[in-house]
Design a protein that fits this description.
The chain is an alpha+beta fold and 671 residues long. It folds into 4 domains: 79 residues, SH3 type barrels; 131 residues, no CATH class; 275 residues, von Willebrand factor, type A domain (Rossmann fold, 3-Layer(aba) Sandwich), CATH 3.40.50.410; 139 residues. Helix content is 34%, strand content 20%. The protein has 18 helices and 25 strands. The strands form 8 sheets. It has a 6-stranded mixed β-sheet, sandwiched between helices. Strands 6-5-4-1-7 form a 5-stranded antiparallel β-sheet, with no helix packed on it. α12 runs parallel beside α14.
């Protein structure tokens, strides 16, 4: 018989194990937990088989703690988080659907020229469209049938015409399954099984949709703004003067049209950081906002605010400058996102962008943007802010002499590929011609003003998309077509917001991730929903990989040293105490780093596919590029972590543990 003290200890241990409940793990997983989504009408019960006592919102994400069968029916013990105090009770398994990976979709803007997506009842219904000789025509026929009030049994819903801004109004469109296939045209398409549920809008009659086909006129309160982000280093004086003069003309034009309350212009200037303190003082700033469009009253006010802007008196340390700092300053401009529905950034420069690919001539150190970002990462921030960006790249003789134009063009073409219309607003100004530059500015801003003045609702001129290709030989026509397309997309987003457009009222359906008529146009973006702990782990693991790689590059060791160091990193983060043999691994995936977060996702991981042989064959330059890209992802994760407005409670309980909130990270930002 146990002595009293031992009996008390046993009781305490038993209580400890009783309360330390943990969600179940999927087969073969140790870091991930089983999760389900609730179906409409799900009810929480006190015990398996008991009557439901409280309802729970549809598509709530819950963790599974236990399974039990009662009278031939499976029941799940569920909770809103991974700690036992979050346990709610029991749900009939039939009222849930498994959610293996926390993946969700965000619609792209139809301003890209694509047609509304069809939500098909089954994979066979979707495949029938993809296998047809002309999928675009087959989908159009189904849309016309539904619009005419003759429902097709294979079509559950049609995507609303208006755009739902995912960054402002999160909606859950989870991916339940996916399959790779090819359309009859030979194009690769990903078929996605999704879930969605939206409560009906009581203001609409039964069967009506929140939007009508076409592009309705928008409210007179619709406003647009342009922020010029201009290089003000030496040699940029004529372009600064031209920009000031052009904006003065624009304000005269909008005042004459009675649009002073609907169109505004702003200006941000940038240079670059200097390591020499004296030079840094002479340069004065890296990025400075001279005119906030939300504050500018008229043309005279604008010119007063930018009156002190001129080219720098001294040269910066490199020909490439820091335009990314200027763009970041434009994105951070107070109040302009709240005041203006349509927002444009126009970058003006004759130099490339510092992004870590350049080296300092004296020290050999890599020179980064002060933002720590590159073109792809910054483009993502611009898109998430619902802002468009265009680049006027001045191909000056000096830039050509220094061999800077080709690399810079690649950076800016990446930067200026806008998510809202999936088109690239990059315009090269031949020979840096001041006259051609002025013509380009006039075409851009003039078209914007023309569209807003066209009618009280500001309906855009022409149809977006195809017009751009038709104007390929005329830069001014190309610019006007881009402005039409970007404006069209902005109006769809504005209408979606003011009319309260919601996701389709369906539950489970199959969709294509590409436009049926043009598979080069993406219909959806994939987001991975990571908790704060998962995002923190991801960041820490990448830092460990970067540390191991940098140590390897700075030491005289064998080719095996990098993977030896990664083995110790893996040991630090391993959730499997029995894991062994990692010292002999020759693939990063075999080390167990990031694996459970990334396995099963519909994308290829650059990190997990890295092998010891590949790392060795890359050579120093490619290895440095790999490290630099990881560092930029690490910085991006830090921005996500600090972005308090976009963390989402998937349990929809209002009482979830803050650690269980998730952030919708673009799939392309994973390592």
């Amino acid at each position: 018989m146990a002595r009293p003290t031992h009996r008390l200890l046993l009781i305490l241990l038993a209580c400890t194990f009783a309360v330390a409940a943990e969600p179940l793990h999927p087969p073969g997983k140790r870091a991930l937990y089983e999760r389900v989504l609730t179906r409409p009408g799900a009810m929480i019960a006190a015990a398996p088989g008991a009557p439901g006592q409280s309802s729970i919102k549809a598509l709530s994400r819950l963790y599974v703690y236990a399974r039990e069968g009662v009278d031939g029916q499976d029941w799940l013990r569920v909770g809103t988080g991974t700690r036992d105090h979050s346990i709610l009770g029991w749900l009939a398994a039939a009222h849930t659907i498994p959610w293996k990976q926390q993946l969700t979709l965000a619609f792209t803007n139809q301003g890209a020229g694509r047609a509304p997506m069809l939500f098909m009842r089954s994979w066979d219904d979707l495949r029938a469209i993809l296998d047809s000789p002309n999928p675009g025509q087959a989908a159009d026929a189904l849309r016309r049938t539904v619009a005419a009030g003759r429902p097709d049994p294979g079509v559950l819903a049609v995507e609303p015409a208006n755009f739902i801004d995912f960054s402002r109004h999160f909606y859950l469109l989870p991916i339940l399954d996916f399959a790779e296939t090819r359309a009859a045209s030979g194009d690769k398409v990903r078929a996605l099984k999704v879930a969605s549920v939206t409560l009906p809008n009581p203001a609409l009659r039964p069967g009506a949709t929140a939007t009508a086909p076409g592009t309705p006129a928008v409210a007179a309160g619709y406003r647009a703004a342009v922020v010029f982000v201009i290089d003000s280093t030496r040699s940029m004086g004529p372009y600064i003067a031209q920009t000031k003069a052009a904006v003065g003309r624009f304000y005269q034009q909008i005042a004459k049209a009675g649009l002073l309350d609907r169109v505004a212009f702003g200006l941000v200037s940038f240079r670059a950081a200097a390591s020499d303190p004296d030079k840094a003082r002479e340069l004065q700033f890296v990025a400075r906002t001279y005119a906030n469009p939300a504050e500018v009253q008229d043309g005279r006010d604008f010119l007063r605010r930018v009156g002190t802007l001129d080219e720098a008196r001294v040269s910066t340390e490199h020909f490439d400058e820091d335009p990314y700092a200027g763009i970041q300053a434009a994105l951070d401009t107070p109040d302009w996102r709240q005041r203006f529905a349509e927002r444009h950034i126009i970058l003006i420069t004759d130099a490339g962008a510092l992004d870590g690919t350049q080296r300092d001539g004296a020290t050999g150190q890599r020179v980064q943007s002060s933002t720590g970002l590159d073109a792809q990462r910054l483009r993502g921030l611009v898109g998430e802010a619902g802002t468009s960006i265009a680049v006027l790249h001045l191909l000056t003789p000096e830039a050509r002499r220094l061999g800077d134009t080709e690399t810079a063009a690649g950076q800016y073409q990446t930067l200026a590929t806008n998510a809202v219309n999936q088109q690239t607003a990059y315009f090269a100004i031949a020979d840096g011609s001041v006259a051609a530059f002025g013509t380009a500015i006039d075409a851009y801003a003039g078209r914007l003003i023309e569209n807003l003045a066209r009618q009280p609702g500001g309906q855009p001129a022409g149809q977006p998309g195809p017009a751009l290709n038709a104007a390929a030989g005329d830069q001014s026509a190309q610019i006007r077509a881009i402005v039409d397309s970007l404006g069209h997309a902005a109006r769809l987003a504005y209408l979606g917001q003011v009319q309260g457009t919601r996701a389709p009222e369906v539950f489970e359906a199959w969709i294509s991730d590409k436009d049926f008529a043009d598979p080069s146009r993406a219909a959806v973006d994939v987001r991975v929903l990571l908790t704060k702990d998962q995002l923190s782990d991801l960041q820490l693991v990448l830092k460990g990989i970067v540390e191991a790689a940098e140590t390897d590059l700075n030491a005289e060791n064998t080719a095996r040293s990098f993977f030896n160091r990664l083995a110790s990193v893996a040991a630090r983060f391993s959730v499997d105490p029995l894991a062994g043999g990692i010292e002999e691994s020759t693939r990063l995936a075999d080390l167990g780093l990031l694996g459970e977060y990334l396995q099963g996702l519909p994308y290829k991981s650059d990190v997990l596919t890295l092998t010891q042989d590949t790392w060795t064959r890359w050579g120093t330059m490619r290895q440095y590029e790999f490290i630099d890209q990881l560092n930029k992802k690490i910085r991006r994760y830090g921005l996500y972590y600090a972005d308090q407005d976009k963390w989402v409670d998937l349990a929809q309980s209002g009482k979830s543990d803050p650690a269980e909130l998730v952030y919708p990270i673009p799939l392309t930002d994973l390592p």
